[in-house]
Amino acid sequence: MRIPCPYCGERDAHEFAILGDATLTRPDPAAPDAETRFHDYVYLRDNPAGAHEEWWYHANGCRQWLRVKRDTRTHAISGAVAARADATSPRDAA
Amino acid sequence: MADHPSHDPLAGVPFDRVPPAGAYGVTGEPGIVASTADEPFIALVIARNGHAASVAGRLSRAFGSEVADRPRAAITAASTVIGTAPGRFLVLSKTETDLPGTLRALLGAEAAITEQGDAYVAFDLAGDKVPELLAKGALIDLDPRVFRPGDAATTVLAHVGVTLWRASETSWRVLVARSLEASFTRFLIASGAEFGLRLDGRAPGRG
């Protein structure tokens, strides 16, 4: 399996560590049902057959987090973008 | 006659010590000459958010070679600047004794600078057979038709994390964490023995 790192180019999956589902959004801790929502956020995972998005860390390369599109049935990887590209931290927004 | 013959070039060499200088493997003209390069001053530049392009521009003007925010080596006689990640550059110099100070004066608040001279050993590999040696440990394509002079990569060789670049048509550089020098040298010898490998000595004292 090879992952197209946006900075390094196409690299063997051995250079990466996987974190998991990249489609989850951290719940609002101030919400009244925050406890239930955090339980689901931390523990519950879908197991989709087909297209999926995952976080991968390029540990033996540029040491950046990537959001990778992978087909869970074929392991075909259709793309990867830097996690920082779609993150808007308060400092970036300032 | 090689000092360390080809049937077991590492026989008797303690695996926790850097193997001694000498000729390893097949006899005759060595296909690979390996040495630890004389480029002792190393620093890492990490551009702060939004400053990668500006930092690359300042490094280009200061070191006299085009530095871009991508995995390339910008090489001059006295210095080399390598892109290792977005907004990150490893700077190597033969002459700047206070490299972090020079870079701080150059880049100010646009980047964080850390001294790395003790962190890495820079191997210099020369010879026609170097790509064939590196291919035995690499996960990336280092064919000389694909990996051109000036190309750089941060990757693994024989499970050892490295930053490597092609300095010229026949010369390659590999940065290895200093504590893995003995292990990486053993990989070079074991993989280069079939081509004949000459390991040049280094000044005692460091490492």
TrEMBL record, chain A:
InterPro entries noted in UniProt: SoxD (IPR006279), SoxD_sf (IPR038561)
Family annotation (Gene3D superfamilies): Folate-binding superfamily (3.30.2270.10)
One Pfam family matching this protein: SoxD
Transmembrane spans: none
A Gene Ontology molecular function term of the record: sarcosine oxidase activity
An annotated GO BP: tetrahydrofolate metabolic process
Organism listed in the record: Ancylobacter dichloromethanicus
Name of the protein in its database record: Sarcosine oxidase subunit delta
From TrEMBL, chain B:
Pfam family, one: SoxG
Superkingdom of source: Bacteria
Designated name of the protein: Sarcosine oxidase subunit gamma
UniProt organism field: Ancylobacter dichloromethanicus
